[in-house]
Amino acid sequence: MAQAFDVVVIGSGPGGYVAAIRSAQLGFKTAIVEREALGGVCLNVGCIPSKAMITATHLLHKAQHDFKTMGLNIKGGIDVDMKTLVNWKQSVCDKMSGGVNQLLKGNTVTILKGAAEFKNSKEITVQSATGTESVTGKYFIVATGSRPIEIPGFAFDEKDICSSTGALAWDQIPKSVVVIGGGYIGLEISSYLRKLGTEVTIIEANTSLLAGVVDPDCAQVVTRKAEKAGIKIVYSAKAKGQKKVSGGYEVLYELNGKTETVKSEKVLITVGRRPNGDQSNLKAAGIAIDERGFVKVDAQRRTNVSHIFAIGDVCGQPMLAHKASHEGVMVPEIISGINRVYDAKTVPAVVFTDPEIAAAGMTEAECKANGYNDLLISKFPFAANGRAVSMSETEGFVKMIADKKTHVVLGVHIVGPEASNLISEAVLAIEMGARLEDIALSIHPHPTLGETMMEAAEATLGHAIHIIQKPLNGASKSAHA
């Protein structure tokens, strides 16, 4: 006898578990199906563990490089116990996953452990170690996420040839790693490995890192620091294959028509992620999937089967956890009869490199492509911010882009300390249609990194206080003018 529910959510990542909680809050009898750990990739083998490792190595780097300048003298070197570090990282993940478990149970969501497969549009089977059961639902929310892309010649074993999943579990510091792909995942892992002493070589197909992902000016700051830290970057190169040799692997890549090689102990593949649209037998439910493997959805995240929705990575770009969570709240509300659509003006993006990069709204190129040809653009450097100086983290800037005619903020791009925490103000500003004056005239507390937002708005208007500016054409003398 099949278990019957109002809403069945497939996948418990940052989209799925949020959708299940909101469904239950709205009075629906709700089930969530998860084949691995609650919290999905993000909590267990993605966002959270990588941030734990980045935090630990950031502290290590400060202790090694900044403490002496501040008069904090450590006798002897700092030993890194990698096994303890990895155990601590795992404890962070376990706490987060346990928290999701408590939230689901506290909201009376039924948790079904196992792999879900559609039998038809109204029924799934859930296969676990203990057997198979049938589950029916009036509504389904597909939140099955994505997985790392494998490239020919580099099959993952998650010990030596790894995706981010395997790399985050290394319990010994590798002597050397070749990273194929200079996107945000590859760069985040490269930067913390380098701080642990690993020799890192990045093989990147484009002519720059983070190409098309972030503002080029921001990417340049991070690239410069990565190279200064000793990360070797090979541009316009294509990985061709690898062979096992003594002490590791020889990685072959093509550069300027010639085959080159680089030797390393481990190989990390971070060329992107692909949606899991080919899993869970979605076709048996009649769900349409596009040529890239994404589930086709409308602005309400409804598939072509009216009672089935899809959210998160499986239904399209940007493949970001916070976008999935936003959809996870929205879809149950739509099911309950609330008239909502996905209409976010901006989805912020953060890259946890050293220094961090964060963005909201459009880049200069995107502004021009959208018909904004007359722009006000300025940068305010962290070097002119008292809090950044007191933290010994002065690299980078806040870059603000506004429409010259209306002063409406179109984009904010930050590279520097705590960029991830600063960007939310920019998101709110863009969502509300704020003008430069709205930010410039809002009193920001001192001394904080947040002042850089106010000063960037002033700089874009042509009259920042803490940098010397040439008068901008047509700049007013005050944000009040």
Summarize the structure.
This protein is of the alpha/beta class. The protein has 13 helices and 22 strands. Strands 1, 2, 3, 4, 5, 6 and 17 form a 7-stranded mixed beta sheet that branches. It has a 5-stranded parallel beta sheet with strand order 8-15-9-10-11. The protein has a 5-stranded antiparallel beta sheet with strand order 18-19-22-21-20, sandwiched between helices.
Structure explained in plain terms:
By secondary structure, this protein is of the alpha/beta class. The chain is 30% helix and 26% strand. The chain contains 13 helices and 22 strands. The chain has helices at 16-25, 40-45, 47-65, 82-106, 164-167, 184-195, 216-228, 321-335, 364-369, 386-390, 419-431, 436-440, 451-461, and strands at residues 3-10, 30-34, 110-113, 115-120, 123-128, 131-142, 146-148, 161-162, 176-180, 199-203, 232-234, 237-245, 248-255, 258-264, 266-269, 273-275, 308-310, 349-351, 356-361, 375-381, 397-403, 409-416. Strands 1, 2, 3, 4, 5, 6 and 17 form a 7-stranded mixed beta sheet that branches. Strands 8-15-9-10-11 form a 5-stranded parallel beta sheet. A 5-stranded antiparallel beta sheet has the order 18-19-22-21-20, sandwiched between helices. Strand 9 (176-180), helix 6 and strand 10 (199-203) form a beta-alpha-beta unit. The longest helix has 25 residues, at 82-106. The mean pLDDT is 96.
